[in-house]
Structures are given as structure tokens and as C-alpha cells.
Amino acid sequence: MNGEVGARVEVRSISKIFRRSRQVTQALASVDLCVEPGEFICLLGPSGCGKSTLLHIVAGFIAPDAGEVRVDGIAKTGPGADRCMLFQAPTLFPWLTTIDNVLFGLRARGAITSESRRQAGELLELVGLGSFGGHYPHQLSGGMRHRAALARALINRPRVLLMDEPFAALDAITREAMQNFLLGLWGRERTTIIFVTHDVEEAALLSDRVCVMSGRPGRIIATEEIALGRPRDEVLRDTAEFVSLRRKLRERLADA
Ligand SMILES: Nc1ncnc2c1ncn2[C@@H]1O[C@H](COP(=O)(O)OP(=O)(O)OP(=O)(O)O)[C@@H](O)[C@H]1O
Ligand SMILES: [Mg+2]
User: Fold this and answer.
1) Whose CA is nearest to atom 14 of ligand 1?
2) CB within 8 Å of 225: residues ≥ 6 apart
3) pLDDT digit string, tens, across residues 224-243
4) 201: CA distance to ligand 2 center in Å?
5) What is the rounded average pLDDT of the residues 45-67?
6) All domains of the chain, ordered by start, with CATH?
């Protein structure tokens, strides 16, 4: 992050309609969201409400029909190295080894140095893939592919990390390890994180603020500040405060 904290992300009156032959789907209707530099927010909403669409728009992969995205006050109309997206299904290049996948973005920019190779190795260690750098994606498990994709995103040191249910497919133990890993990383780097999840507990455990989206067309219908202290550990999950927060979020989601 070049010594900077995460960037401010503003989503202003974003609407999106998809047209496929005669079918018209309004995915998003006038979504407003402001994420402070270094804030960790979760987007929580029912399936099909437009969460992935919103992340793709913030990433600059899809153009909205109306509204705009600003990063640190600058309007963005396409992708950029300031924002990095982790997809719902991990996307690795099947013909590259794990370490070359991690280094792909840097290589494309001609920015590979011995230092970046060392960092890639270190990141693979961090995500528990230290001895799998030479493996190809088909030789990794599903969870390992997610972790490799995370390492690939992190090597760019993005100022905004957009995460689309990155841990949903993982087993409970790996998922918890990844959540803790992400929190540790965020605590150090203060990247701005927008994290999509279906999981109320995950949202409450990770974020500073949870934005609940309505069913399609997606809008933000409730925002809950998560005023729990950090670090958040297993003990926290059993506290009355956490249980009541989880219940509140579940109710908000039911209203969506
Ligand atoms: N490229 C596309 N063309 C047509 N319709 C699309 C396209 N992408 C998304 N949609 C539609 O937009 C709506 C929102 O989709 P989106 O993937 O954003 O939902 P989501 O909230 O991420 O759902 P989930 O939680 O299941 O991942 C859906 O009805 C989907 O069918
Ligand atoms: Mg989605």
C-alpha cells in the first residue's frame, strides 16, 4: 500500500439493469454507500440481490447504468491496481504454477524483482501454501485455490480489497483460519475491505459495519455498526453482546 492506509470508497446512486433478450433484471436500484479509509464493511443480503454486481461495479468490471464510484474522491470508470477483487469462485490461470499465479499481475506490469519473488514466497507461507508454490491449480484443493487467489490479490498491496464470499466454500476450520488471517492482515495494513457474505456470524465477527441489502433490486436497507472490540476471538462468539447482535442482523436479513 505504499505506506498509505486504505482508500475511501463512495458509491453514489448506483443502478444497474441487465437485459438478456426479452428478460430485464433490475439488479441494483440507487445504491449509496460510503466506506471510510481502512474500514472493514460487510455486505449482507439474500441470494440474487446484486451483491456481486455491486462489487463488480466498484472494481470497474461492469459499468453502472446510473451513478458513480469514487475512490479517494476520484471518479472511476474502469479497473485499476488500487482495487483488487477476490471472486466468488477463485480464478487462477490453470497453466501457471501457484507462485507464478501470485506473480502474474507484477509480471504483466514488468515489475518482478527478486524482492517480489521473496514476497510471493512469504505470502504463500502466510496462506499456508509455502510448499505448494510449484503446484498447478488442478493439484490444489478448493480451499487452497482460494488461498492462492488471496495471495495473488495481496501481492498488489491494493488500497481497496473487494471480497465476494471468499470463504464460503471452505470447511469450518480452514474458514476460521482464513478469517483470522484476514483480520490480522487488515489490522496491519488497514486496507479498506468490502466483504460480501451470506453469513450473519461472519459479518458480525469481521466487520466494523454491516450493510444489509434488500432482495432484488438491491438497495441498502439497514446499517449496523459493530461496536465489538478487537481482536475478536472465539470467546466473543458466546458473549451476550455478540448473540444479540447476530439476532438483530438475522432479523434485518429476514426483512430484506
Ligand atoms: N451478466 C448478467 N447478465 C444478466 N443478468 C445478470 C448478470 N449478472 C447478474 N445478473 C442478474 O442480476 C441479479 C443479481 O446478481 P448477483 O450475482 O449480483 O447477485 P448476488 O447478490 O451476488 O447473489 P448470490 O448471493 O447468489 O451470489 C440476478 O438476478 C442475476 O441473474
Ligand atoms: Mg454473488
Assistant:
1) 50
2) 208, 209
3) 999 998 888 778 888 999 99
4) 18
5) 95
6) 9-82+160-255 (3.40.50.300), 95-157 (no CATH)
